[in-house]
Each structure stands twice: as structure tokens, then as C-alpha cells.
Amino acid sequence: MSMTIPAILMRHTSKWLPFIDRRDKCPADECLTKTRLAFLVRIGTYRLGCFAVIALVIGCGLALRKDASEFLLYRLTYVRHLPESASTHNDVVYVLGGTPDSLKAKFQTASKLVQDGRAARVLVLSQQALMAFSPALGRNLTADEWVVENFSAFGIPADAIEFVAFEKGFFGTWSEAKGLSRFVRERGYRRLILVTSPFHSRRVWESFSRAIEQPDTGLFLYLADESAYLRHLLPEYVKLLLYRALLF
Q1: Beta-ladder partners of 31
Q2: Are residues 117 and 228 in the same domain?
Q3: What is the pLDDT of residue 7?
Q4: Torsion angle defined by CA atoms of residues 53, 59, 60 and 66, in that order, rounded to the nearest 10 degrees
Q5: What phi and psi, each to the nearest 5 degrees, are found at residue 121?
Q6: Are 54 and 82 part of one and the same domain?
Q7: Which helix (H) or strand (E) holds 185?
């Protein structure tokens, strides 16, 4: 005896469709509609459950990421501001390196220190590189020209900027600290104010405080207004641990 398609569907789906009783003699079209409806409800419920699980996983991940970022930033940050005593012509600001956007944030912090009378000059590491194209000059700016141009935007004249140069080694920040220490000793600067990124500040302080050769040279550290993300914090924390294990 042949069976219609709706009857076959009813026979195989009535086991898991509670609202369909095999004893009911419903019309074929009505039974097929109920079958389709039950299938759609089941698929919809499954998808909603998947979305709920995904949302929960993402929420937990974001919460853990925020906690990890806050923990690492706390471990990596160090600040030491100047006392209220008056500055002299022997007090200088040194801006540590970074990306162009990072440097602009550091320039702003350094400029404010000079304008507030906390330092007389700004020291910047001289770089052999080309920066953005200058329509006025018809060529790309050198890195040093770019520095002067950006400091001028914050009101610092070119004669208040001094470029320094020294050989950099494998451990960049440590080599920078050793080179600048010799420069500060030769020039007789009394106080050295460092400006760097928040997540770089702990490694900077531990490097420079050990490298400064003049015991009477005051060392201070200010932070630029920069954002710190987990992709920056994790590598920096590893570098800090390596410095402590291999150098300090």
C-alpha cells in the first residue's frame, strides 16, 4: 500500500514532535504545515542558543582582556615628577622615541614642561630617516626637520631643541640610557627629565636610574598622554622581564 509524502513525514517526525499525535487523523496539508513549523522553531531555538553562548564567550573575553590590560599597565607604569624648586638652565627634557603619533604626544608633554619653566631645553635623539613630504620644500622632511616642525606647532623654537647622537646596541633603551648618561655628564646638566609612553616608563626608569653616572644628577619622569592596548602591553612586559633577568 503506497503512502503519501505527508504521511511519511508524519511517521518519522511524530516521535520528536510532542504536539502531533499519531492517532490524530489530521488532513495532510495541515500535518505538513505543523511539521514545517516545528522544524523552524527547533532551528530558531538552536540558533538563539548558539548566539547566547557566543555572546557569553565574547563578554568573558572582553572582561578578562580589560583586567589583563589594567594589571599590565599598573606593572609597567612609573612616574616621578619634579619638586617645586625652581629650574635652571641646566635642567633639560629628553624625549624618548616612538611612532610619529607617539612622538607628537611626547612633544606636547615636553613642550609644556619648557613653557612652564620646568626645563630650559629639549633633547631629542637624532635619526637618519625621511618623514612626510613637505610641499613648501618640495621634498620629504628629514627626521630632525620633522621634529623641529612639530615642536614649533607647540610653541617651542628651534634654538631650544638639541639633537643628540650615540650608538645604539641590541638593548635599545639600555643603550640609549648609557649614551645619554655620558652626554649629560659632559654637558654638566643638573636635572634630566624623561618623557615617554606610560607602558614604557617602568623599563625606562629602571634603565636610566642605573645608567646615570653622575650621582648628583636629578632624574625625573613624565608620561605622555597616550593610549595603551594589550598588544602593546604584553611585548613590553616581556622586555621588562628580560631586562631584569639579563641586565639589572
Answers
A1: none
A2: yes
A3: 52
A4: 170
A5: -140, 165
A6: no
A7: helix 172-187
